[in-house]
TrEMBL record:
Residues 32-106 form the Type IV pilin Tt1218-like domain. The chain crosses the membrane at residues 12-36. This is Type IV pilus modification protein PilV. Pfam families: N_methyl (PF07963), Tt1218-like (PF22150). Keywords: Membrane, Transmembrane, Transmembrane helix. It comes from the Bacteria. InterPro entries: N_methyl_site, Pilus_4_PilV, Tt1218-like_dom.
Length: 184
């Protein structure tokens, strides 16, 4: 008689095992959803950084006379200066010379970095050794004949929420764009 009851229904242990298996599946799906959200966010930051670097590269090509005197001085960190200082002239209302245009270009890039990248940073320099141990790096090691590089990055986070950093304790650039064909 007892064996017939077991055939017609589920035992409590079978139900508990099914609930545990279902809970593990739901937790796994939730974890995958969180990973997908984080990857999508990082992809969006990378896309924004690449677009900013390409736009700045085009501005450098359009104003090559100011590369050595103005653009190569750009090393902006939005973490240290969240609101960039505006230049004296922004070239929106009327004509301006190439030096004022370079200052306006750099200000516009700084505003984009500050508003679109968390703790963003941009650096324009001459560099022959952008890579170290398979990662981009901020320091620039290049002489006057080295290519011009636009480096853009942001302060990312590890999956556990701690700040992501490299072996030097700093965060690495996300994008480094080498400008080919730019006069030294």
């Amino acid at each position: 008689m007892a064996s017939q009851r077991r055939i017609h229904g589920f035992a409590l242990i079978e139900v508990l095992v099914a609930v545990v298996v279902l809970a593990v599946g739901v937790l796994g799906a939730a974890g995958m959803q969180l990973v997908a959200l984080r990857v999508r966010y990082e992809s969006q930051l990378l896309s924004n950084a690449a677009q900013m670097a390409f736009a700045m590269a085009e501005r450098l090509r359009a104003n090559p006379g100011q590369i050595a005197t103005a653009y190569l001085s750009l090393d902006y960190d939005a973490h240290a200066e969240p609101v960039p200082a505006a230049p004296g002239r922004q070239c929106w209302a009327g004509p301006c010379d190439s030096a004022a245009m370079a200052q306006a270009d750099m200000y516009d890039l700084k505003r984009q970095i500050a508003s679109q990248l968390p703790g963003g940073r941009v650096r324009i320099c001459r560099d022959t050794g952008m890579w170290s141990s398979g990662r981009l790096r901020w320091p620039c090691a290049g002489g006057p004949a080295a290519p011009v590089v636009v480096k853009v990055g942001w302060r990312g986070k590890n999956p556990d929420g701690t700040a992501a950093s490299d072996v030097d304790g700093d965060y690495a650039p996300g994008v480094a764009l080498v400008l080919a064909g730019v006069a030294p």
